[in-house]
Amino acid sequence: MFAHLTPQKLFSLEGKVVLITGGAGGIAAGLSAGFAAAGARLVLTDRNESVERRAADLRAAGADVTTEILDVTDAERTQAAIAAIAERAGGLDVVVNNAAIIVRKHFLDLTIEEWRRVIDVDINACFTVAQAAARIMVKQGSGRIINMGSIMGHVSRPILTPYVTAKNAIHGFTRALAADLAATGVTVNALAPGYTITEFSEAGKKDFHDFVADWIPLKRWGKPEDLCGAALLLASAAGAYVNGQVLYVDGGFLAVTK
C-alpha cells in the first residue's frame, strides 16, 4: 500500500539521465555524488578537461559518468551538444544549470567586458541550456530543470555587482520558465546555496570565514554535499509538485539577516 512512498522510491534516480554544467566545480562534486548514489546516469560538462578528472573520481566509486567539453556561452554549440547527448542517452531527465563565474571588483573599477562575461556565463548560458533541454523534455512529457541560484539573489554584498545581478535574474527566470512550461510535465526550480566552501568561495580568508560562520545559525559554512538532499528532492519523484520555487540551503543565514 505504501511501497510507492518509500524513500527508496521517492528519491530514486535509477536510470535517469542527469546533465550538470560546470561539472568540474566544487558544487558539482557534491551534487554529482548525490545523484550517482541515487542511481543517475551522469553527464558532466565544463569548458576544459578538468571535468574528466572529476568524472574519473566518480567512476572509480562506481558511478555511470560521461563528459562533454563545452563552453556554454557558445549557444549554437551548446544546443547541438545537448541534443546529441539526449540522442545518445535515449533522453534527458534532469538538467542542472550550475556553470557560473564571479568577478570581485568595485563597481567603479568594473569593465564592461567583465560585466558582460559574468552575465553571459551566469544568466545567458542558463537560457541556452534550459531552452535546449526543455525542447527535449517537453517532447518526452517530463523533465526537471534546476537552476543554480544563490542567497545573493536575495541579499547583497560589495564588489559583487555582476554576480548579484545575475543571481537575481536566475530567480526570476526560474519562476517565469515554470509558468511558460506549465502543463508540459517539466518542472523548473532554483537551488540557492548559502556560503559554501568551494574553490570560488572566500572561506580561506580566516577573518571573513569566522565572521560568516558566527552569523549563520548553524555556526559553520556549508559543504557541497549539504546540497544533495535538496537537489535530490527537486530532481526526483519526491518533488513532483514543487515548481517555480527558489529553495535556499543556507544554514539559516537568511533567517537572521537584517
The top level CATH class name: Alpha Beta
Strand content: 5-15%
Number of domains: 1
| Structural class assignment | alpha/beta
CATH topology: Rossmann fold
Order of helices and strands: HEHEHEHEHEHEHHEH
* General form: globular
How helix-rich are the residues, as a percent range?
Answer: 40-55%
The CATH superfamily title: NAD(P)-binding Rossmann-like Domain
Question: Whole-number average pLDDT?
Answer: 96
Q: What are the segments in which pLDDT stays under 50 over at least 5 consecutive residues?
A: none
Question: Any guess at the CATH architecture?
Answer: 3-Layer(aba) Sandwich
- Let me know the largest β-sheet: 7 strands, parallel
Question: Mind explaining what this structure looks like?
Answer:
The protein is of the alpha/beta class and 258 residues long. The chain has helices at residues 7-10, 26-37, 50-60, 75-89, 112-140, 161-180, 206-215, 228-235, 253-256, and strands at residues 17-20, 41-46, 64-69, 94-97, 143-148, 186-193, 246-249. The protein has nine helices and seven strands, in the order αβαβαβαβαβαβααβα. It has a single domain, classed as NAD(P)-binding Rossmann-like Domain (Rossmann fold), CATH 3.40.50. Helix 6 (161-180) links the parallel strand 5 and strand 6. The protein has a seven-stranded parallel β-sheet, sandwiched between helices. The model has no long low-confidence stretch (mean pLDDT 96).
